[in-house]
Specification:
Oligomer: single chain
Distance between the termini: 61 Å
Length: 550
């Protein structure tokens, strides 16, 4: 369907990532896409927050002329991303009809629901809304710091522009806790996607042991760039055996792609799916996801669905059998969606596959991934340059390897290889090596082994080891061990300090339900405490405490 400039080397990868970051910003400046965005969240408080916040930063995230129509949608019960997409489509049609507005060629649905259990206790401090995590990047039009959900949307602008120019009409559905920069520069001819019904986003590569175990796989016809089938996560030998079973000639024609999760879906396919599933969309007991079985059901024949059931039963995997038990008629409904779409369009269903190459990925929903992404800001190499560009930090390091922006630092402070933005550090004895301080108001800071302090205020901030991170911590003394986490909940009963640590890898059972690490509350109790507060109120209460700190 088109050509792509594929990343071949690490050096080339970084230049392509930088070009795609700038392309996304340019697309926003030139108002090329972003006429409409639906933001889907899981509570009324979240929906109100995103409506106001996304509108205020729209000129830096969607369109510079601030003409974006923002629709914030509250899912009243968890729908899964398949029924959630259809619920968003239902709300979108109603909104545009009520406003007597036309559908954009390509719109964006940003999925920002999720309390972020695995980001405890930071996510509770954000009102149980992980996509509201403030980043070091500011919005010039609003003066606010962009949130994780904003960066996720900003860097989809090139995707929207590319598929719109190729003739696609529909919605891009994107998860809001990650920013993803493609490792290719697309060169698609006009009309390449004029007659496709969905676009699967993949990294086309050969499976290895790690990717096979951790990722789902889309099988692609290399001649047509259309999806053939999808495999769930399994060991490498099982995936290779599946491909080999197709036969040598067929296997040579096929390519494999890591499923990247986000996708585009056409308006005709959305219409047909909403007709078939509307009662389930409205049923609070119903939920369903696209991956892996929704796409498989939509694309396969009856005998292939039966073969997939038999394969998983023999392997002892419960996934597909559990879906069929929980959701009787799921396959039959998607088969009807396909029949209606094909009948109306007069052609077979076409699920295209777009290769993103090896992406530059910033995951803001997990402790280690978030910390590692932010630590890359201090790296003097090309990876550090890409990370700084992604967060809008364009100033070059000084003679000590520091990037200092809009900050006051006491003369004599020992600061090397660090990032300091919008911060005050008053004590000349402060030490920061390879550290990051953003939005801080501090007396003495001791970070000799690095660390990250975001939007904190303290008389003494001390990190005893690397990989520590504090978010919105306000207090006399804030001290973290290696890998530590610290934040403050601003809830109905007043501020509550909470600790965490990267050594906690499971957030189930006692680690979540019982107090750990010296906390007065468990993470479950903290989530319950903050459930009715919401991100807007936590923003207000944190800022009030931060501003009052002397």
């Amino acid at each position: 369907m088109g050509d792509t400039e594929i990343v071949a080397t690490a050096e080339r990868a970084e230049s392509v990532w930088l070009a795609n970051i700038e392309s996304a910003r340019r697309t926003v400046r030139q108002n090329r896409v972003g006429q409409f965005v639906a933001i889907v969240s899981g509570s009324a408080n979240d929906a109100a927050y995103w409506q106001a916040h996304a509108t205020s930063v729209a000129g830096d995230v969607f369109r510079a002329d601030r003409s974006t129509r923002v629709l914030s949608i509250h899912e009243r019960s968890p729908k899964g991303n398949l029924l959630g997409t259809l619920n968003a489509w239902r709300e979108t049609k109603h909104d545009l009809t009520t406003g007597n507005l036309q559908l954009p060629s390509v719109g964006l649905v940003s999925m920002v629901f999720g309390k972020g259990k695995r980001l405890s206790p930071l996510t509770q401090a954000l009102g149980n809304c992980k996509a509201a995590l403030p980043t070091p990047m500011t919005s010039p039009t609003s003066g606010d710091y962009l949130r994780g959900g904003d960066l996720s949307s900003l860097y989809t602008s090139t995707w929207l522009d590319t598929i719109e120019r190729a003739g696609f009409k529909g919605l891009v559905v994107k998860w809001g806790d990650e920013a993803m920069i493609p490792g290719v520069r697309w060169q698609l001819p006009r009309g390449a996607y004029a007659d496709v019904d969905a676009i699967r986003f993949v990294w086309r590569t050969e499976p290895d042991e790690v990717l096979a175990r951790e990722k789902e796989w889309v099988v692609v016809d290399a001649e047509t760039d259309l999806m053939v089938t999808q495999y769930p996560r399994e060991d490498l030998q099982a995936i290779l055996a599946r491909r080999d079973a197709l036969g040598a000639d067929e296997a040579r024609r096929l390519a494999m792609g890591v499923n990247l999760g986000s996708f585009a879906i056409s308006y005709p396919l959305l219409d047909a799916a909403l007709e078939v599933f509307e009662a389930d969309v409205m049923d609070p007991s119903r939920a369903a996801d696209w991956d892996p079985y929704g796409w498989l059901a939509l694309s396969c024949a009856d005998e292939d669905w039966a073969a997939a059931q038999a394969y998983e039963a023999k392997a002892g995997w419960p996934g597909l059998a559990a879906l069929c038990d929980r959701y009787p008629g799921f396959y039959e409904k998607l088969r009807e969606v396909r029949r209606r779409t094909e009948s109306r369009l007069g052609r077979p269903l076409r699920l295209a596959v777009l290769d993103f190459g090896e992406c530059f990925w910033v995951d803001m929903g997990l402790h280690q991934q978030l910390r590692r992404a932010l630590e890359r800001l201090t790296q003097p190499d090309a990876t550090g340059e890409v990370t700084r560009a992604l967060f809008g930090i364009t100033r070059q390091p000084d003679a000590n390897g520091n990037i200092v922006v809009n900050s006051q630092i006491a003369s004599g402070a020992d600061i090397q290889g660090s990032i300091v933005i919008d911060s005050e550090i008053r004590d000349a004895g402060s030490v920061i090596h390879d550290g990051i301080v953003v939005g801080g108001r501090h007396g003495s800071v001791s970070m000799p082994a690095g660390g990250i302090a975001l939007f904190c205020a303290s008389e003494t901030l001390s990190f005893d080891g690397p990989s520590a991170l504090a978010l919105r911590s306000v207090g006399e003394t804030i001290s973290l061990p290696a890998g530590g986490r610290h934040t403050v909940l601003y809830g109905p009963g007043g501020p509550v300090a909470m600790a965490g640590n990267e050594s906690v890898t499971s957030y189930d059972g006692p680690n979540y339900d019982d107090p750990i690490l010296g906390n007065a509350l468990s993470y479950a109790e903290a989530a319950k405490l903050m459930d009715g507060v919401g991100p807007a109120e936590t923003d207000r209460l944190w800022h009030e405490a931060w501003e009052a700190w002397q």
